[in-house]
Amino acid sequence: MRTTIGRAFAFLLLWLAVAGRKPADLPIGVAVALGSAWASFILAPPSGGRVNLRAALIYFLDFLRLSLWSGLDVARRALSATPDLNPGVVEARLRLAPGYARNAFCIIASLLPGTLLTGFEPGDDQKVYVHGLDVGQPIAADLAAGEASFMRMIGHE
Questions:
Q1: With a threshold of 0.85, does the pTM exceed it?
Q2: 54, 62, 125, 154 - which has most CB atoms within 10 Å?
């Protein structure tokens, strides 16, 4: 029941952010939020995990830090007279099992400038290929650290 209310509330907040806070639109927003929550349970049933708020804050702050430093590094490389690039693909291993949590992590990890998760090994669903602007950087280690932090956040330690 708490999960249903939580999802409906999250969808209502999303509705308010998009449509605005006009009181006349609130009944439609509530109906849309309830319908969205119902559909989300069919499309993405609860996994049983709980978000650790302290770990989520740490993950968020770490993501912002990494995003800022990665963005500055990419900008430095792009604006340099002689770009310092060593592009390539590295292999990394993920601990998260295939599913929603791993998909969410892969999407978030691909948002960081300078790296992009490009695919998985067909015979080994834990092996992921990551394209980087500089394969001399510890791309696989950084990905593993980010995954460990993400796993703490969602309660899959």
A1: no
A2: 154
What are the DSSP calls for 14-47, one per residue? HHHHHH---GGGHHHHHHHHHHHHHHHHHHS---
Domain interval for residue 11: 2-43
Q: Give the count of alpha carbons within 13 A of 101, CB side only.
A: 22
Terminal CA-CA length for the chain: 25
Domain count, the chain: 2
Cα distance between residue 143 and residue 17, in whole Å: 32
Same domain, 57 and 14: no
Q: Are residues 131 and 79 located together in one domain of the fold?
A: yes
- On whether residue 19 sits in a domain, the answer given is yes
- pLDDT of the residue at 88: 95
Instruction: Check residue 137 and report its DSSP letter.
Output: S
